[in-house]
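Q: Give me a protein?
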Amino acid sequence: MTPSRAARATRARRTGPRRRTAIGALAIALLGILLPGTAYLVARKTRLGATLIVVSLALYGGAAYLGLRKRDAVISWALDPSWLLWMIAGLAALGLGWIVVLVTSYKMLRPLTAGPGSRGLGALVIGAVCFALTVSTATGAQTLMAQRDLVTKVFGETRSQTRPTISSTKDVSQQLPRLNVLLLGADDGADRQGTRTDTVMVASVDTRTGNTALISLTRNFMRMPFPAGSPLHKIYPTGFWDPNGEKEQPEFYLDAMYRNIPKLHPGVLGPSDNEGADVLKVSVGEALGLRIHYYVQVNLAGFAQLVEALGGITVNINYPVPVGGNDDKKIPPSRYLQPGPDRKLDGTDALWFARGRYGVPTADLARQARQRCTVKAIVERATPRNVLVNYQAIAQAGEQLIRTDIPENLLAPLVTLGQRVKTAKITNVDLDKKRNFPNGRNPNYAGMRAIVAQALNPVRRTTVPRKLSTAPPSTATQPRTTPKTKSKPDAGDLASACAYNPGPPG
C-alpha cells in the first residue's frame, strides 16, 4: 500500500465513529452516563473504554454489596465525621469524573460536518445535563455536610456523670436486655424564668425485639426520690420537697427540678454539661426502679420545626384541643384543634396537640396521652424515604432543638436498634393515678415501681387445671348473658389508645 493510501485509510478509521447523525451521537453520549466507557468503545477508544466500564461495574457492584450485605457498616460510616468528609470528597470526584466523561464522549462522537443548529442543540443538551449532574452532586454533598454537622454538634463529646459504658463494637442486645432513654420536653419560652421540663417520659426499649414501652410522669409530682448512694439523697432523704413548706410547692415539682437543683446545689453530681438532665436521670430512675442510660432533650419551642421538616404528622383528635390559653391567668385559647380522624397537623398545631391543656378534663394526664400519640405519629412519619427527602431540614432542626448525652461512637448500633423499634410495638405503661398519685403531693413511688417491673418483665402465672365434673350442669352455674357495652380503648396499646374514639378524656 502506498503512503497516500495508508494515510487515507487511517483518516477513514478515525472518522468512522463520526459517520452518524448529531442526534445519534448525542444519544450515545447520554446513554454513556449509565455505564461510563460505552461511548468510548463506540468511538473506538477500546482500551480506555474497557477500563472505564470495568471501573464503573466495580463501583456499581461495590455499592450493591454494601447496600445489601454491609448495611451496618454503611450506617457506621454515615455517623462518623471523618468518613463523612471522605464521602464528600469522593462524591465530588465522582461527579466531576462523570461530567468529563460525558463531555469528551460527545466531542469524540459528534459529526464533523454538523451544522450550527445541530452543534448548538448538542451543546445545549450536554450543558443542561452537566448542570443537572453538578446540582445533584452539590445537593448530595450538602446533605452529607448537614449529617456531619448534626453528628458533631448534637452527639459530640459531652460530660455526663450518669452515662453508662456500653461497647460500640458489640450488639446492644448482647449487653443490655432493655435500653432506657429519658425523653424531656423543655419549655424555655419568654414567659418562663429558666427552663421547665413539662414533658418527662421514659422510653424503655427491648433491645432484642425493639418493642418499646412509654412511661409518662406527671409534671407536678413532689417528693421525687433519689437513690441511697446519691449525694442528693443526703440533701433530700425523703425526696425533693420542703418538709416545712406549704402543702403545694410548685418550686419542688418534677418540672422544676431541671432548673432548681443545679441552681441550689451546683456541681452536686460532678462535672456535667447538662446538670439538670443528670439530676432527672437519677431521680426518675429511682422513682420507676430503672437504670436510665441516656437522655434526649427536645426544646418544645423548636419542636414545631422538626415536625415541619418531616412534612407534618397525622393523628386522631377525639375532643377539642386548645391552642394557647392560660388557666391561671384566665386567658382563653385563640382557637381549638377540632376532633376528627387522621387529622394532618403542621408544626404549630402538632406542638399544641402535645401541649394544650386549657379547660381540658384531667389536663395533665390527657396531655401525657396526647404526647405519647405524638411520639407514635413521629415514629410512623419518619420513614426512610421521607427522612431522606427532607434530610437537610431535619438535620438543621435537630441541631437547634436536641440535646443528648448519647455518645457519637454509639450512634450506629442505636440506629440499628431504632430500625427494630420502627417495625415493633409501642405500648404505654399506666402508672394508675387513682392508686398511686391522686395528687402530686405524695405519690406512691413504690407502687409505680411494682407496676413498671410487672409491665417490663411480666411474671407468667401457671394455671392449675381444674378437675372436670361429670355432674350435669345446674341452672345456678349456667353462664349468664350480659348486655354488650362499648369497649374502652386499651390504654396500654398505643394503637388502640391513639385511635379515633370521640369523647372527652377520662
Summary: The radius of gyration is 32 Å. The mean pLDDT is 83.
